[in-house]
Amino acid sequence: MNSTHLSSRHLLVGVTGGIAAYKTAELIRLLIKQGYTVQVVMTEAATHFITPITLQALSGNPVFIDGWDQRIANAMPHIELSRQADAILVAPASADFIAKLAHGFANDLLSTLCLARECPLLVAPAMNRQMWENPATQRNLAQLRTDQVILLGPDSGEQACGEVGQGRMLEPATLLEGVQAHFTPKLLVGKKILITAGATMEMLDPVRGITNLSSGKMGFALAKVAMHMGAEVTLVYGHTTAAQPLVTHAFHASAASEMHATVMHHIADQDIFIGVAAVADYSPVLTAEQKIKKSEETLTIQLKRNRDILAEVAALPDPPYCVGFAAETEQVLEHARHKRLAKRIPVIIANKANTALGSDNNSVTIIDETGEYPLSSADKTSIASKILTHLYQHLSSFNNNK
C-alpha cells in the first residue's frame, strides 16, 4: 500500500510575469517538502517580480529562461525539459500567457515547452479582476478547458491593485493540494463516503463541557484524500483544531446527540461510513441553564449513555461499508479486535490514543477479516492515503460477499 501523496514525481513549475510570483517561492518550498522534484522555467517578465536565484535556491535546480540556453546538451530545452516532467504547473499564469496557450503561440521557452509537452498541464491564473472578467480572457479559458488543461483557481479577494474581486492566485497550500489531487489515483470515483471527525462536546452548563483531546486531523485527512480519489464526501465534524478540508457536503455537530442525528439523516445512500470522530460515550442527564457556581461542596454529575453511532449504522438493514477507529491507551490491538467483532463491522483502525490525539502524525493498524496491517508512523495525510487504498482493495471482496 504505497502513499499517493509523498511523491517522487517530477514537476515543472512555470512562472510568468505577475505580482503573485512571490507566492510561487512558498509553493516550491511546499512541493519540495512533500517529496516532489521541481524544475523551474521562468518567462523574462517573471524575472522582474522574483529572481531566478531565489527559485533556484528553493528548488535545488538551475532555473531556465532562454529557449537558446546552452546548458541543455542538444540545444532543445523545450523538448528536454517537457519530456522530463510528469506534469507542468504554471503559477502564476498571466492573462497574456493564458492567451498564448489558448492560441498555440510559442515565442519563449515556457510557451514552447507547453506546446511541445506530452504531460498534463495545470494552470493557476492570476490577474486583475477586469482582466479576468474580460470576454477575451473568458474565451481563452474556455478553450483551455476544451483542450483539457486543468485550471486551479483563481480565488476572489483583495488584489495588489487595491481592488477586490476574482483573479487572485490560489494560496500555495491550496495549489499544493490541487497538485496532490491531480496525481492521486481516482480509486473512489462514483463512491459516496460519510466521515465523522473531531470531538463532541457534552455541555454541563452554558460555558463548560465534557470533551476529549481529538483534533479532527485524522478525519479531515481522510476526507481530503477521499476527495482527491474522486469520492463524493459528506463530512460531519465536531470540535476541531484543524483546518476544514474542501468536501462535497459538511455539517457541524457539537454534541454526540447532534452527530448521531446528522449521521442518521445522511447515511441512507452512502457506500462507505468511516467513524473517526471521538464521540463521547456519556453525556450529562441535565444541563444547567446558568453557569454552575463554585462551592465548597463536592459536585456530583449524573451521566447517561450516548447512542453508539457506528453500531447503529452497521446494524441498518442495508448498511454501508463501515470502518471504525479504536483509540486505546493499553492493549490496543486486543481492544480493537474485540470492538470490530462487537460492532460487526468489516474494518477497524487501531491506534494509540496517547500519541494519536492532537498529533500531526499517526501510527495505525488496519484490522479486517483477512488479517492485520500495521502502518508505521507518518503524517496523517499519508496514513489516510494508505487506509483508503486498502479499503478500496478490500471493498470489492466485501461487496461480493454481502
UniProtKB/TrEMBL annotation:
The active site is at C161. SUPFAM superfamilies: CoaB-like, Homo-oligomeric flavin-containing Cys decarboxylases, HFCD. GO terms for cellular component: phosphopantothenoylcysteine decarboxylase complex. CTP binds at D281, K291, F325, K339, K343. Residues 10-180 form the Flavoprotein domain. Binds 1 FMN per subunit. Its EC number is 4.1.1.36, 6.3.2.5. The keyword Flavoprotein applies. In the N-terminal section; belongs to the HFCD (homo-oligomeric flavin containing Cys decarboxylase) superfamily. In the C-terminal section; belongs to the PPC synthetase family. This is Coenzyme A biosynthesis bifunctional protein CoaBC. It comes from Methylophilus rhizosphaerae. The lineage of its organism: Bacteria, Pseudomonadati, Pseudomonadota, Betaproteobacteria, Nitrosomonadales.
